[in-house]
Amino acid sequence: MGRQVKRAFRYRFHPTEAQAAELSRTFGCVRLVYNRMLAERTRAYAGEGRRVSYAESSALLTRWKRTEELAFLGEVSSVPLQQALRHLQGAFVNFWNKRARHPAFKSKKKSRASAEYTRSAFKYRDGRLTLAKMKEPLNVVWSRPLPEGAEPTTVTVSRDAAGRWFVSLLCEDRIPHLDPVESSVGIDAGLTALVTLSTGEKVADPKHERRDRRRLTRAQREHSRKAKGGRNREKARLRLARVHARVTDRRRDFLHKLTTRLVRENQTVVIEDLAVRNMIKNRTLARAVSDAAWRELRSMLEYKADWYGRTLIVVNRWFPSSKPCSTCGHRAAAMPLHVRDWVCGSCGIVHDRDVNAAKNILAAGLAES
Fold first, then answer.
1. Residues annotated as catalytic (active site), given as ranges
2. Of 159, 205, 316, 330, which one's alpha carbon is 20 to 30 angstroms from that of 36?
């Protein structure tokens, strides 16, 4: 028994100069089409109360290509431009249905440079991937194999702030469910220990950003000293971006290993519904909370539990997990943050604050289920 899912497989690749130039040109055209169409649709919606459809957007793009000003749009593959319109359409649908804010313009500096190719715009055969408008296949570093017999349906090419190139192949994959186990675990997220488990185990927070803070500060200082618009400033920006990329990669790798272990070892995983967005507003905790990446931890647990046939339960954020005694249920009157160990006034058991909270979270989650 397993689950059929659409799964993205991401790889580094090293383009030739011609490929890099073609992709950079495509990224620019995708961003231009998205922003121009967003401006046009916003004007129609604000001024006329009219919702522009995808079909109208596509027809307008065709007219743009015939003008002298935007004729260069016809020099790149048309598929990434059409995909940009589809993504914009989805963003507006979410906005109209009040599931998201109004779509925002893409920034050349802050937005991710990417282009999406569907089946008609790439060829994948025997481990060789060739994109439209290119004569040679991409030099992809196949760090892991695709599922046997998998045929990519979508290819997304991107370049990060550190100048690294990535290609993501979306494939249909069947993931077998793990064998059922009897164990369940409650998880209390923290800053000293990244997570404390109801079993008593504490997983220390690696503090990836803090470990590289000296290197990060030096790179930020060097970048700020360079004259704007100069080549040296661009070199300094790349060095700074590489430090950030190193921190991000190490954090993501650690979270993947931790969440995979938790899902494999337990049939039911119970976590708290933390208000991370509100916590980041606290200047004292913002940096530490961001480095802990609790939101990413939860996201990984959600999709991995779904993949492998496990159950993830989220306990209400207002549940007072620290105050009740996990043994007898007696509730302490107050529990300041500096109190890390306390004695139950009813049964006399000495509690580690975080372990007790994890046990209460587990009990609350199992009671809900």
1. 188, 272, 354
2. 159
